[in-house]
Amino acid sequence: MKTLKIMLALGLLSLASLSVQAVEIRDYHKDVIGKDCKSCHDNGIKQYPSDQACLQCHDVDDLAKQTARSEEEKWQNPHNNLHYGKELPCQECHGEHKVKKPLCSNCHTFKYDKHKE
């Protein structure tokens, strides 16, 4: 009976470790993050990363400059827009492990060709 419990525990442990290793990481983050999930998941592994975790590496002002539009489309900048300014939570548009549809696409039809899910 004791051997059966030990075997069951080892089996469950190996399944849990396989599921963690099978998580996809975007190519542009692999070199930086590696396999250290806690570097982003500062609220716990099963929780979305906080904006502060994203902002450790990404500067919102730099992102706003990179995604700036022409003067006529000024407020269509996803990182500095009419509705949220620079305060839109990163997870509303970006997902590391699953492709996400940007929040703005629920109402707006414009495209962000360089959007990184």
Task: Tell me briefly what this model is.
This protein is mostly helical.
Helix content: 25-40%
Task: Report the structural category.
Answer: mainly alpha
The arrangement of helices and strands along the chain is HHHHEE
Question: Separation of termini?
Answer: 48 Å
Description of the structure:
The chain is mainly α and 117 residues long. A two-stranded antiparallel ribbon has the order 1-2. It has helices at residues 2-21, 27-33, 51-55, 60-66, and strands at residues 76-77, 80-81. It is 33% helix and 3% strand. The chain has four helices and two strands. It is elongated and about 75 Å long.
Can you lay out the helices and strands and say which pair or pack?
Layout: H1 2-21, H2 27-33, H3 51-55, H4 60-66, E1 76-77, E2 80-81
Antiparallel strand pairs: 1-2
For the structure shown, list the relevant keywords.
117 residues; mainly alpha; two-stranded antiparallel ribbon; 4 helices; 3% strand
